[in-house]
Design brief:
The protein is about 55% helix and about 10% strand. It is α+β, with helices and mostly antiparallel strands and about 230 residues long. The protein has two domains: about 80 residues, no CATH class; about 110 residues, no CATH class. Strands 1-2-3-4 form a four-stranded mixed beta sheet. α5 links the parallel β3 and β4. α1 crosses α3 and α2 packs antiparallel against α3. The chain starts with 9 loop residues before the first helix and ends in a 24-residue tail after the last helix.
Length: about 230
């Protein structure tokens, strides 16, 4: 017998709508053209398809089906574009803030364990620790020259605990050899699977919250909880 699936609770639907509204409001503060871009995308995608349907089909049923598909296509295109612009605005808001890299790392999907600010200097150079399928990744942000030494120190400490598990380092920024905030998560996920989920959890337990500071991470930086198309 097929299992009965309970309908999605109303509270969940309201929560999603609230998140979309909040994301829109925050994005519009820095992207003033957002309302017009959304409107033009919806009309520009939907209207031509509807007009084509009117000329190609004589059957009212065929026109109705094609119109429905046109509206669906327009909505998908609009949501996709909105997601991209919301994401761009989010990166622009957090760039330059201490802890910005941690805010981005926290959007990694299930199976990744993030410990922000395991090392901090008075100049607000930071190192964050990521544990996941790729092993351990230490992410530095701040002055590249100062962070490089900070990362090396943390790498030595990590290897003492991690043993043979790979330990990689990255520095976020916009210069040569640096990883931009936008490409940070993608770069980490492309490193390839090197340890199992069980090894990842065991490794996390070994480290615990060692070295984590109480540095505040930018809040509301990334649109969490909303299913926005990923790059």
């Amino acid at each position: 017998m097929a299992k009965y699936k309970e309908p999605k609770p109303k509270k969940e639907r309201f929560k999603t709508l609230k998140q979309i509204k909040q994301t829109y409001s925050i994005t519009r503060k820095t992207d003033k053209a957002l309302p017009w871009i959304i409107l033009l995308t919806l009309i520009g995608t939907t209207l031509p398809l509807i007009l084509v349907a009117q000329f190609l089909f004589e059957s009212a049923f065929s026109k109705l089906i094609t119109t429905s598909l046109a509206v669906s296509t327009g909505l998908l295109a609009t949501v996709y574009l909105f997601g991209k612009r919301a994401e761009k605005a989010a990166y622009a808001r957090i760039e330059g803030q201490p802890g910005a890299a941690a805010a981005v790392l926290n959007t990694l999907r299930k199976g990744w364990f993030i410990t922000p600010a395991i090392a901090v200097t008075r100049n607000q150079d930071l190192v964050h620790r990521v544990i996941g399928p790729v092993g351990i990744v230490l992410v530095g942000e701040g002055s590249p020259t100062r962070v490089a030494q900070l990362l090396e120190n943390e790498k030595i400490k990590a290897r003492r605990i991690a043993g043979e598990i790979p330990v990689s380092t990255l520095i976020v920024g916009n210069g040569e050899g640096l990883i931009t905030f936008k490409k940070l998560n993608k770069t980490i996920m492309k490193m390839g699977k090197k340890i199992s989920p069980a090894e990842s959890r065991e490794l996390r337990n070994r480290f615990g919250a060692s070295g984590a500071s109480s540095l505040p991470i930018p809040k509301g930086a990334m649109p969490k909880g909303m299913r926005i198309p990923r790059r």
